[in-house]
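Milestone M4 deliverable, item 7.
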Amino acid sequence: MKKTVGNGGVRKAPIPVPAGQGGTLQRNVLVDIPVESGHPPGSPGVGGSIEELLVNDRAFETLSVLELLEARDAYHYHLMDKPNVVGTAIGLYLIRDTDAPRVDGEPPKEDPDQDKPARELGRSSVRRYSWPCVLVFVREWVKRSDFRTQGGQLRPDRIVPKTLYLPNGRSVPVCVVLAPPGQSVAGAARSFTWPAARLGGGFPLFTTVQGQERVATVGCLVTDGHTTYALTNRHVTGPEGQPVSSLVRGAEVEIGRSSSLQLTRRPFTDVYPDYVGRRVVLNLDAGLVELKDVRDWTSDIYGIGPLGAIADVSENNITLKLIDAHVQAHGAASGLLSGRIKALFYRFKTLGGDEHVADFLIAPEGETQTQPGDSGAVWCLVPDPGKPLPKDGPPVLPRPLALEWGGQAFIGDGQRTRLQFSLATNLSSVCKSLGLDLVHAEDTAAQPFWGAFGHYSIAAMACTRVSAKFRPFFETNLTSISFGSSVLDAKGLKDAIDKAKKAGFVPLADVPDVVWKNLPSKLHGGRDTGFRSGPEHPTHFADVDEKAGGHTLLDLSLKNQHLRPADWQKFYDDIGHHGSRERGCLPFRVWQLFEEMVLALRGNDATRFLGVAGVLAHYVGDACQPLHGSKDADGFADQSRIEQRVKRDGTTEGVKVWPGQGVHSTYEEKMVDDFAEPLVKGVTAALDGVPQVPPPGDGRAAAMAVLQLMKRSRTALTPKKIIDTYITAGGGRSKKTTSALWKACGKATIEIMADGAVVLAALWDGALHAANLGSKPLPVAPIDRAALAHLYEDDPTFARSLDLDHIAPALSGV
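Output delivered:
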């Protein structure tokens, strides 16, 4: 009776199996079948031996990720005990570039016992017929003939086995790869011109630990539903409260502090419960930076662009289709990086009997390779450049997949080239473990107040409502004040804003938020005097529902037509509001700007007039937003309580919470963005039905017109209704909550925005009439944007930011 032989005594036959990465076609692959059998596995055994019928002949191509991991785990000690072994992983068999392509159905022409040339990184690749395997990386390539009991250099027990055997009868092939470790060397860091107004993924991060500066990369933005964080590595952020900086216009500025939410390493089976992994530790290395001001950020990754949804990978769907997938990242040190996933669950070291593994081993592709400073970069699945994209359908957005935390240098390509591989963590595991969601595409947190287009839409529509005589001037300069209604949707407006800011210009309607509410060291033109403090902040609101002596500030102001800052100062003093930030003065800001428009027109300075008129749009937009005129601007803060929360170190801390907390940004930003299209259509349709507002004749009348607007807004939509709806819907920023807000408040929001556009047009008209221009027309040609930017960035006399205690001298007739 003839015995069944091993790998050398087989021939190859094709069987159809599913195609590789993302494919749906079938392919022929070579599988091992016994030489006695004239039939592929699973075919009838007519004419074959009886022994053949009893052999477990499942093809290698059917091996699952779980079986590969079981095999490696079963041989855990035997593999890690080999002195020549650098690391192990699972993946697809690498074929030498010098190996001739195999023809389906033909047996291999090489002698399996013959010494073979080294299989090297850089000189081998995955081919169409590559099969699942355990990859074993070795320092030296030792010939088979050297493993002999007598006359050999090494004992036979030192050889890496070609096959691993599972208890269920399955056999798992081993692919040995020559990959001697190299020294990771940092190249010259790339010099980038970082955007001035928006930060995002790919930007550099700086921290100081024990007197030494560490440099890393922002991966992407994530959120827990309340707070938005920049994701990077824990070994960069360090312990909670560590200051973290980035670069803005070449200057290093603090962007936030490290959060207590972080991950170092966890048992492999805690992260992947359905997999095996005795004494296997998964390196996660994820840290978060709690951002100071989320409005400075975009969810885009620099150099890659808008992101799609996270590539949700778990043991339920991870397959070897990921092997050789094309990925990209942007490292702060290296720039745009391209690579391919070479292996899964790479074991990079052993310590105390434990194996330490990384989810992904990513091989470099192209001249640029990762280096120190790129830690924290997020690798995204992107379309393979070698495969055609569908002609029809939406654009394919990058899908964030993995968080880089380190590198592994190998020597490849004939021992001449250093290949710097990336070690990365599954991003899905990070988000799952920390309770986070990816911020992406239209969900970007870097939106101005009043939604993605609140201020812009009011300004744009006011340009169409100003008197016919002056309308050409405003329509000609519409894109300097705002954006046209054709781009007033979440994505279109975002693209337009990004384009304008890359050109070094912020549309005037958003200058007060984007530019002036910043420290001068952080952004050129900033007016803050401290973190989120300075004279600009109180000019954006007025809590007109505050009460003193049984009367609200709004009632007293409308009753007293004289409207003096001194009256407001006394009112605030009486209720105990003594700090500048507590004493909102929005109507007086409008008074001040109205008079500046008149003076500019009388001085024939059309550039200055347009600049003031454009920024005025922002404050009128704030005035028609009910929460900007209420003491309950972000929920019922007067019902606050201290809630004890357990920190990761086991200690507790008291956190102040109150009903409705978070409503301000959810209503102003998320709801408005989620329902941008019906909102714009609704406001456009509502404009004709809004009663006209008489153009005010002076600054005091302009301030009174804005107070009346605030009264109408809070009557049409009370702050209490917004907050109660938010609480009932469960809070947060989910679509469920924004849908409830839209259903309850959408119609009224449309009405108050249309009212705001009409009032803004009346203020512009009032200033033009008050200037007594006579027959002198305004310029027809567009005003130079560089001159406008010079005003709001460099001219300290332009629309000076003044709080309530300092604004009176800037007002006439007080």
